[in-house]
Specification:
The complex is a heterodimer of chains A (about 280) and B (about 375).
Chain A (H helix, E strand, L loop, with lengths): L1 H16 L6 H18 L4 H24 L8 H4 L2 H26 L4 E2 L9 E4 L2 E4 H23 L1 H11 L1 H6 L4 H27 L1 E2 L3 H16 L4 H21 L6 H14 L10
Antiparallel strand pairs in A: 1-4, 2-3
Helix pairs in contact in A: 1-6, 1-9, 1-10, 1-11, 2-3, 2-5, 2-9, 2-10, 3-5, 3-9, 6-7, 6-9, 7-9, 10-11, 10-12, 11-12
Chain B lengths: L1 H23 L2 E8 L6 H20 L7 E8 L4 H13 L3 E6 L3 H13 L4 E3 L14 E3 L4 H14 L4 E6 L3 H16 L3 E7 L8 H9 L4 E5 L2 H13 L5 E4 L6 H7 L1 H4 L3 E4 L7 H14 L5 H20 L5 H10 L2 E4 L2 E6 L4 E3 L3 E6 L2 E4 L2
Parallel strand pairs in B: 1-2, 1-3, 3-4, 4-5, 6-7, 6-8, 8-9, 9-10
Antiparallel strand pairs in B: 10-14, 11-12, 12-13, 14-15
Classes of the chains: A mainly alpha (about 280), B alpha/beta (about 375).
Chain lengths: ~280, ~375
Amino acid sequence: MTYAVVAIGFTLIYRVLTAVNFAHGEVYTIGAFTILIGATTLNLPLWSIVPLVVLAGALTGYGIELAGFRLFRRFTDEASLKSRAVREATLLSSLALGIVIREILDLIYKGDWQSLPETYQLSTSLDLGGIYISSGEAVIAVVSIVMLIALQLLLHRTSIGLAIRAVSSNMIGAQFSGININRVVIAVFVIGSVLGAVAGMVVSLAYGAIQSYMGLTVVIKAFVAMVIGGLTSLPGAAIAAVMIGVAESVAGIFLPSAWTEMVAYMLLIVFLIFLPNGLFGRRR
Amino acid sequence: MKVLRAIALAAAALLLPAAGSLAQKNEVRFGCYIPITGKFAIFGSSMKNGFEMAQEDFKATGKLKDVNVVVQCEDDQGRADDGINIARRFIEDENIVAVLGSWSSAVTLAAGPLYNKARLVNITPTSSHPDVTKIGPYVYRQSVIQSREGAFNGASMYQLGARKIAMLGIPNDYGKANVGFTRRSFEKAGGEVVFEEFVRPDAQDFRQVLQKAVRAKPDMIYIGVFVPQASLMLKQLRQMGVKTRIYLAAVLDTPDLVRLAGAKAVEGSLLTLTFNPVLGANVADFFKRYEAKYGRKPDPFAGLAYQTMTMMMGITARLYPNVTREGYRSELDKMTSIDNVFGPLTYDPEIREWNYKFNIGTIKNGQTVLLK
């Protein structure tokens, strides 16, 4: 389910800008570090850290948009908006921003693994008929489902959601209709990054282990889910992410766990060969 | 032609004083390749602290007073290709007298052959894969060797009453050697390995593999992974309510285990000890001084780096002022014993390894207690 939340934030940004935000993994990491700082440095109760995580995610998303994307899309003519060079530049700039965030966290925490205080960890064991899960895992599932539903409501029941859908459908047309593109793009980064930061938070609460590199694997899996889901489809990304998670778990029963890492990539290869448009992708 | 000659002379005139100044500065420069950034940066940082403390302690003895000993650390990120690139640079740099590193066996195994071919001493403070010193006569090691630790681990588990064990490791050179030698020793003692699996080092959820291990009904679970994964495994085993006894590899004899897993999760775990304050005054004193200086307790990598650097400083003092690359090899071959933070150790010149003493410990209320 974690993959799903991260993949949706990732896909949302791609859907609007047709640009990959590789700094999205670091948003996930920042969500985890915010809860660490709230718990250890500020000694805040858990309920009061949650809004801080949302704020940190929103600010990080806004910062990434300003530093990594806005500069490359300052021209709003049709040629620039459709420019492949701009897309490639933003891919690299987001990658660079991700490295910068990671290295800053590494400098502060010296690359060391951090542990959340036990009182904050959701580690009660739940026995579901012989299958053990922790309360943290249950919270991951519930929070993920709630966030996915909330996102759907936001996209289909609010004016900003309508604007996001309009921009993702036809940016130039939306611009001519009077929609403020910059405002929509910022909203997309903020929403996507809040999803990523909250995902980082719940995973940290479930496992209690935090490190600057924790977002790296997740963002790669989110990218794979986005491609399998059909690049621009939010339900597609969510379903693909769940599919990857389930496939990894099932593979873990039959294969040595070190091999389960390849499951997502095997699925990706299979989809690229037999279903290149993904689960819900538009035919190109 | 005259112009070219004039340029050459001018360049030579500029370079000569520079070359002279190096000698005047009385500098001895060691190369060092360790992970400074990346996932393993914390281990490189421990090693760097160990080198630094050894240099300061050696200076305090009054030896090499006027000599500036420099450890030039380069970042290999725990990656073999970076280790090879750094090796090429160090070999070309005539100011480098010997090289320390790497942290990882995989990196040392990749870069070691280059140093050996170039006849530049490469001494690794931490790489424990048995093949490291087999690379050649210029590659040395200061750490525990996996074949010996594994022999101790396996025999200890059998001695502690385990007849069936489940083993968990990580799929790299260290992990495979650690699990492989432990398994061999346990089976030789008459035990049976009912489950063995190598886990993904970046994973956070180990419940599935732990359930598979528990289903095999072992008397004991052996964990031979690094601290971040081990702390998660121990927490998850506790959450699952598993009561099976746990035995941890020597690499987990570090205060970070209790810090990351919490005292409850590690309670009662058995482990191999080589570097722990309970083992003697030397190591206890090192822990105290290290914590005062760096604000955290040392891990075995800091201790091994300290021991290696102390030995290399001693050799430098013996060689000075005739410090040559070959001199280090010749002096290292003369080493027979060392008494440092790991206690008195003897050197086995036949297999070119140090004889470390292993002990069994257990964790009670977050503190390690010597069992034997």
